[in-house]
């Protein structure tokens, strides 16, 4: 199973990078096949719902574990935003709430791929939490190249989120933390730095 897990990791990592940089423009349906392959690996490895991070298991413990890091990073971003006037013309509206909900759903999907697949497979290969978390962080960051803001942020965030997932096995707190930090980052920093949080070729558009 270790060799199989290693092959799966290489295939999915290559597939995601290929999709980001090329196939999303030439063969967008490739994402469906890639997702189907990931789900198939869950069946092959007989992953339980709990192991995949779904359901209510350890939800509260996951929130508590991420409350401190999220508050620290969020506070820093808020201070930066206030200092540069990023919140001067900002106001809460129904459109912004809906946008946050859509972004949260996207974050949840990202954490599903990163944790339910990559963390579980890499942990089976490496059998050590810290090494698994650092490699998952590198994987997560690689999906955000060449964005100069998101690449380092997702590397650090990927490590923290993976460590919490390994300990508490729930995707929802991870998505909440990512959605909060990502939303604040998009407001606090100039848009010409993060290009609307776009990655891959889209960053240059």
Key words describing this protein structure:
single chain, mainly alpha, 205 residues, globular
N-to-C order of helices and strands:
HHHHHHHH
Unreliable stretches: none
Structural class: mainly alpha
Largest sheet: none
Instruction: Give a count of the beta strands, DSSP E runs of length 2 or more.
Output: 0
Overall description:
There is one protein chain. This protein has 205 residues and is mainly alpha-helical. It has one domain. Helix content is 75%, strand content 0%. It is built from eight helices and no strands. The chain has helices spanning 2-26, 30-44, 59-83, 94-126, 129-142, 150-168, 171-188, 191-194. Helix 1 packs antiparallel against helix 2 (30-44) and helix 1 (2-26) runs antiparallel to helix 4.
Reconstruct the topology from this structure.
Blueprint: H1 2-26, H2 30-44, H3 59-83, H4 94-126, H5 129-142, H6 150-168, H7 171-188, H8 191-194
Helix pairs in contact: 1-2, 1-4, 3-6, 3-7, 4-5, 4-7, 5-6
Q: Summarize this, please?
A:
The chain has 205 residues and is mainly α. It contains 8 helices and no strands.
């Amino acid at each position: 199973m270790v060799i199989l897990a290693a092959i799966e990791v290489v295939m999915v990592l290559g597939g995601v990078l290929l999709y980001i940089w090329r196939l999303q423009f030439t063969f967008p349906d490739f994402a469906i096949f890639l997702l189907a392959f990931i789900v198939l690996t869950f069946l092959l490895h007989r992953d339980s719902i709990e192991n995949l991070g779904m359901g209510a298991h350890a939800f509260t413990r996951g929130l508590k574990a991420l409350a401190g890091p999220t508050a620290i990073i969020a506070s820093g971003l808020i201070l930066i935003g206030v200092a540069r006037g990023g919140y001067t013309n900002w106001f809460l509206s129904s459109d912004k709430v809906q946008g946050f909900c859509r972004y949260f759903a996207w974050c949840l999907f990202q954490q599903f791929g990163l944790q339910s697949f990559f963390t579980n497979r890499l942990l089976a290969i490496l059998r050590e939490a810290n090494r698994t978390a650092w490699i998952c962080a590198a994987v997560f960051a690689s999906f955000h190249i060449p964005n100069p803001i998101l690449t380092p942020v997702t590397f650090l965030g990927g490590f923290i989120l993976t460590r919490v997932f390994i300990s508490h096995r729930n995707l929802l707190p991870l998505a909440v933390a990512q959605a909060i930090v990502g939303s604040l980052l998009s407001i606090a920093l100039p848009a010409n730095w993060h290009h609307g949080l776009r990655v891959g070729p889209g960053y240059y558009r």
